[in-house]
Amino acid sequence: MSNASLLTVFILMGLPHTPGLDALLFGVFLVVYVLTVLGNLLILGRTISFHSRVAQLYFFHFLGVTECFLYTIMSYDRYLAISYPLRYTRMMSGHSCALLATSTWLSGSLHSAVQTILTFHLPYCGPNRIQHYLCDAPPILKLACADTSATEIVIFLASGCFLLILLSYVSIVRSILRIRTSEGRHRAFQTCASHCIVVLC
């Protein structure tokens, strides 16, 4: 047995880069930040055209629903990692991960397109003021003078992600409780703790 000491502290050096890259990265992040603030200022209290409303609703729901689908896939991934640790690498190969990631983006795009089309094919004959800071479906649907149940069902379908995530974590907790050693349970909990925190946030 060697007489070497074990490392207990690690030092994070930041992103590996050449020394002249600091100013460039600062400039890039500054431009992104300024554009974000300007974009947020532009949506407050403004008249918005029909096409801009359609684009805003589509992209708002596309990004939101895709994020929900990604969280669902991540919870399934954690379920497989904890419940089937020996078969995990075969079940979640690089090809499977690419297929799942692509399917979340495509299904998020499809869901958002269907919701946007259903929302803007409704007749709007009442007031044109929306008590919201962006064009989201529920405030727009309140202004429609027709049956909005089809659009509401499409919106509700996206909330099924929460139920799938909850189901995955119930299965994960059951699998963790079946682990005999406390060290094994602790390692299994660490495997899914970061995803749990992200979903809760």
From TrEMBL:
Its main location: membrane. The gene is LOC100583521. One of its GO terms (molecular function) is olfactory receptor activity. The chain crosses the membrane at residues 26-45, 57-76, 153-177. This is G-protein coupled receptors family 1 profile domain-containing protein. It is found in: Cell membrane. GO terms for cellular component: plasma membrane. Residues 1-201 form the G-protein coupled receptors family 1 profile domain. One of its GO terms (biological process) is G protein-coupled receptor signaling pathway. Signal peptide: none annotated. Keywords: Cell membrane, Membrane, Sensory transduction, Transducer, Transmembrane, Transmembrane helix. Pfam families: 7tm_4. It is a multi-pass membrane protein.
